Amino acid sequence: MDAPVKLEVLATDGAARCGRLLTPHGAVPTPAFMPVGTQAAVKAMAPGELWDIGYRMVLANAYHLAVRPGPALIRDLGGIAAFMGWRGAVLTDSGGFQAMSLAALNRIREEGIRFRSHLDGAPMLLTPESALDIQQMLGCDIMMALDECTPYPVQPADARRSLELTARWAERSLRARTSHSQALFGIVQGSVYADLRAASARQITSLGFDGFATGGLSVGEPKALMLEMAALSASFLPADKPRYLMGVGTPEDLLAAIAMGYDMFDCVLPTRNARNGCAFTSAGRISIKHSRHAADSRPLDERCGCRTCASYSRSYLRHLFRAGEILAARALTEHNLYFYASLLRRAQAAIASGTYGQLCRSLASGVAQELDETE
Amino acid sequence: MDAPVKLEVLATDGAARCGRLLTPHGAVPTPAFMPVGTQAAVKAMAPGELWDIGYRMVLANAYHLAVRPGPALIRDLGGIAAFMGWRGAVLTDSGGFQAMSLAALNRIREEGIRFRSHLDGAPMLLTPESALDIQQMLGCDIMMALDECTPYPVQPADARRSLELTARWAERSLRARTSHSQALFGIVQGSVYADLRAASARQITSLGFDGFATGGLSVGEPKALMLEMAALSASFLPADKPRYLMGVGTPEDLLAAIAMGYDMFDCVLPTRNARNGCAFTSAGRISIKHSRHAADSRPLDERCGCRTCASYSRSYLRHLFRAGEILAARALTEHNLYFYASLLRRAQAAIASGTYGQLCRSLASGVAQELDETE
């Protein structure tokens, strides 16, 4: 049987690689950033706009969609892509991260995670089997095995117990799987401990997953440690399957992680920052709230080709943001997602031409700067 | 000197007429509905989307823009249309209506209206002269003379005092005008009293305005009285100048007012209702919150040609609305504005072909119904 998703590596440059991830909903150029659409919508964006910017895969959250509107409804309406009116592929996170981020509401046991719904307090049990069942009903292209996203900081003994639970859940996930038209990825944990990362990676990659993710990073640990653990984990992931670094990150994080050989990323940063008035530009990050933009007729980024930069001045965007207009969230989100899409396209092209190191050096001085830190 | 705006009447059908309003920012087909963009943005919409739906003129509010971001800033950025990235025409209301709707914050005197800014409490004085000055700085195509929007209910003696103040302010507005590249409209008041409406209309139309508006309606009076006063006021407005019925209304109100000979309308209904989950359809109004839409794969209106109806099911829209997603406001607003634009286009075509009465009868049974009144 053919694998439901398949990575075609077209070129490598050091550990970095570019190619195409073939999914039931079409090909996704890699390395790929996936905009986050937790509730089956990328906040402030229409699906057609994501497509026009160049995105071919988005992320949604199985836990959130299980609570509302329910997986059976989405199945009956043709699966999550059809439900959203989205032509591309969808990856769903299982809800393991919500087990940590909504921690007051749940208890983790061998069987799974006992939640109370964040909406109405109704008791729910999320197990490796039910997480699979939900994702199979959602009809996403890529399902994630239920894991425990180990919190930070954590003692080594607790981190080991956690990754072993994740490993047992991974095996149960594979046994529970009935759909072979949807891919299933396993998740490496191990917190910030090199030996535990190695142990988890060996365990998870010994199982028959279609791809592998590095989880449990960007949860509060220092940046250097995040990058070290991401690199270490990547070194254990097989070259012939897609590698996904979950929840990362800033433009500079993406550039670093691509160099480690990761193919897929997701992060709320471009969309959430946009709604908070922060824009990514080729010269660094700007806060549209800042008074120095009040009468500035220039676009957010004079080197950007997005619709926002073609249509609106910084002055107008600042006015929209201060006035609480929805158009502010729309325009900044579209700009930031365009910025990320452009970054990934440049990375793909640089890898193909063997110039990825040069690209990273040329961008390093610009993208990470905070230009409007003081208001 | 040519008038800054000119109405070309192309056809009449009874009192109804269709044509084109020629403005400094292009021709606007009439009868025209103007989406409300109080703060220089039509809530949830991008200017290019309004254009694509067929709108050629929007409304903004001089008072709101005077408070934030300030008229000098907008002037320095090229005027309100350029500031918004809008290719069409803009009409600004003066702030007279805010004198009523933000009444706790102001006092009306002969000189003008003493406000406290609704944002920071700063004292402001809006006079006929300063309202003109602000609108001239904004660079809108059509300015409105400052009026007192008489509240409802009101005693006849108070309504008379109010309309006479409005008349004196109208004369001061014309004397204060320095820009003759922007049109200036006068406003008829008189509450619900036929003799006062007639007196106000005679006073205002005797002055050298470029167009005339009927104000002070849709402020709480019974619907039949609103229509009676709108018709009476219209009968006094000269045929060779544009007639604008302010703040009206529902689709059925627009059909009735077009039959009276009005050319221009504005109302928050299509945009505000959209954000509250209410959609206009050819069969009547629906509330997308209603549980009967939960698993409905049909569009809002199977006879609608808008992007929302081409892209999203009622089920998905209901999910978006309940999840608080910005896309719900976007999709419903675009649909409702498309519905209004289509209605106006059909009215224009029917007037041109002498079938306006038939159009009104054919639509009457559908559009006014509330289909989901109980939840």
Q: How many structural domains does the protein architecture of chain A include?
A: 2
Number of strands of chain A: 16
Distance between the termini of chain A: 58 Å
CATH superfamily of the largest domain in chain A: Queuine tRNA-ribosyltransferase-like
CATH architecture of the largest domain in chain A: Alpha-Beta Barrel
Q: What kind of sheet is the major sheet of chain A? A: 8 strands, parallel
- What is the level 1 CATH name of the largest domain in chain A? Alpha Beta
Q: What is the number of helices of chain A? A: 15
Oligomer: homodimer
Gyration radius over CA of chain A: 20 Å
Please list the strands of the largest sheet of chain A in the order they lie side by side.
Answer: 4-14-13-12-11-10-6-5
Shape of chain A: globular
Helix content of chain A: 40-55%
What would you say about this model in short?
Chain A has 15 helices and 16 strands. With 375 residues, chain A is an alpha/beta fold. Chain A has two domains: 6-267, Queuine tRNA-ribosyltransferase-like (TIM Barrel, Alpha-Beta Barrel); 273-363, no CATH class.
Overview of the molecule:
The structure is a homodimer of 375-residue chains. The first copy, chain A, has 375 residues and is α/β, with parallel strands linked by helices. The first copy, chain A, has two domains: 6-267, TIM Barrel (Alpha-Beta Barrel); 273-363, no CATH class. Helices cover 42% and strands 19% of the residues of chain A. The first copy, chain A, has helices at 47-53, 62-67, 71-76, 80-84, 96-101, 128-138, 156-176, 194-205, 223-235, 251-259, 269-275, 307-311, 314-322, 326-352, 356-367; strands at residues 6-13, 16-23, 26-30, 32-34, 57-61, 89-93, 106-108, 113-116, 123-126, 142-144, 183-188, 211-214, 243-245, 264-266, 278-281, 284-287. In chain A, strand 7 and strand 8 form a beta hairpin. In chain A, helix 13 packs across helix 14 (326-352) and helix 14 runs antiparallel to helix 15. Chain A starts with 5 loop residues before the first strand and ends in an 8-residue tail after the last helix. The interface between A and B is large, with 38 and 38 residues.
